[in-house]
Structures are given as C-alpha cells and as structure tokens.
Amino acid sequence: MINELYIVGDQSRLVVKNIINQFNDSGCDIKIYSPTDSEIDNLPNYSIYLLVLLSDNIDFSVITKIYEFQQRYEYQICFIGRISNLSLEDDRFFKQIPSLKLESYTINVDKLLELMERNSSRKKQILVVDDEPIILRSIKVWLGDEFNLSLVNSGEMALEFLDMHPVDLVLLDYKMPTMDGPAVLSAIRNDSRLSNLPVIFLTANNDRQSVINAMQFKPDGYILKSKSPEEIKSAVVDFFKNRTIRM
C-alpha cells in the first residue's frame, strides 16, 4: 500500500479540501503543494506518487513543470478533475502525459491508492482471451517480453481465472463460441470486484458497423487483429502509459 502521497491542489477550493481530508483519513502520509511554479520547484528529486487536483485556475506551466519532473525522476502521477480552457496544443500535450486520469472528484480513496500502486509496477498482468490457439501463441510472442501474460481459450475460463487472479488488463476476443466477448464484458462490469477492470476487445472485423457494435458495449478500447505485431504492442503500451480510469 502507498504510505506517502504528494498532492498538488488549490486548498481554497472546498472540493480539494474534502479530497485531502479523505486521504488524511486513509492513513497515508500526505504532503500538500499549491499549484504554483514556485511550489512545484520544491517537489522531491526522486520517484514519488503524485496526485494532481486540476481546476481552471491552474496555469498550464504547472502541468508542464510536473511533466518535466516526471521525465527526470519517474513520478507516478494521477490527475483528478479537468482544465476546461486548454488550447488544442496544450490539450494534446496533456493527453500524452503518462498518468492515470479521472475527471470526477467523486472517488474511492482506497481503490485509487491501490490502482496507483499497481499501475507503477514494472510488468503489468494481462489476461488474453481467444478461442484461436494461433492468436494466443502470437500475442504471447508479441507481448511476452514486456508484460506478464495469462492465456485462456474461452469466456467461461476467463471468468474463472479472474475470480482467482488479479490482472491489470483483459484482451478479449469479440467473437467466441458459447460465451462471446460482449457477454464476458457484461459479466465483468456486473461484478463489483471487477467492474473497473480495463477490457480491450480484439476483433478481426474492421468495417465501420463492426466497430460501432463493439464500442456500444463500452470497452476501454479495441484492437484489430489485422494490425501488425508492432502496432498491437504499441496500442497496449500506450494504454498503460495514459489511462482514463473509472471509479
């Protein structure tokens, strides 16, 4: 569990005060910094867990400086809230910052701390679900050097595995016999222990209607099986670099 957490936020805002109080109650050692350039300069020169509470009155130079510290010292960052008046260039820059992102200030503190800790681990745990052995073998070859992979060949086996083992992501085949991808995703979302687990569909169909059908089940993304191994690996790596999370 995270024992020390750094928070950047404007304590004159009631919503920020409330969140800080929640983290104080969690037993974490909290260190609070105002969202100004001079305060950010005082952040540690080593890796930390950093929670940044966003609002429209934060100058974007603060975000830029936090990113520079992250690149230098490997900060583990979670942004909460949003800055609504960003330029297109600043918005693109912000979206590329490796971090967890959560727009709502309504959070479960214990779950968020657990997620921040898991997100910082060196190798992510991925469950790959596909009824085609050749796909399972291929993904193991393509991703196995960077991630810890578990492979199952049916939706039923996927749910049994998730009942006993924690994972960071499910790569889920869309079309499978007996229990297809949407049915598995529905079961995951309806399980209180798994409801926030990220799921990305694997699909062989790249026509517009198939993509629309896949996205109506609200996965965390989809990957076309027709993409090159490098593109598939890049999609998974990018997902973990910059996650928008549900709480």
Could you walk me through the main structural features you see in this protein, from its secondary elements to its overall organization?
- This protein is α/β, with parallel strands linked by helices.
- The protein folds into two domains: 116 residues, 3-Layer(aba) Sandwich (Rossmann fold), CATH 3.40.50.2300; 113 residues, Rossmann fold (3-Layer(aba) Sandwich).
- The chain contains ten helices and eleven strands.
- The strands form two sheets. A six-stranded parallel sheet has the order 2-1-3-4-5-11. A five-stranded parallel sheet has the order 7-6-8-9-10, sandwiched between helices.
- The longest helix has 14 residues.
Q: In CATH, what is the homologous superfamily of the largest domain?
A: Response regulator
CATH fold title of the largest domain: Rossmann fold
Domain count = 2
Give the strand order, joined by hyphens, for the main sheet. Answer: 2-1-3-4-5-11
**Helicity, as a percent range:** 40-55%
Low-confidence stretches: none
Chain-wise SSE layout:
Blueprint: E1 4-8, H1 14-25, E2 29-33, H2 37-40, E3 49-53, H3 60-73, E4 76-80, H4 88-95, E5 99-102, H5 109-119, E6 125-129, H6 133-143, E7 148-152, H7 155-164, E8 169-173, H8 181-189, E9 199-203, H9 208-215, E10 222-224, H10 229-241, E11 242-244
Parallel strand pairs: 1-2, 1-3, 3-4, 4-5, 5-11, 6-7, 6-8, 8-9, 9-10
Helix pairs in contact: 7-8
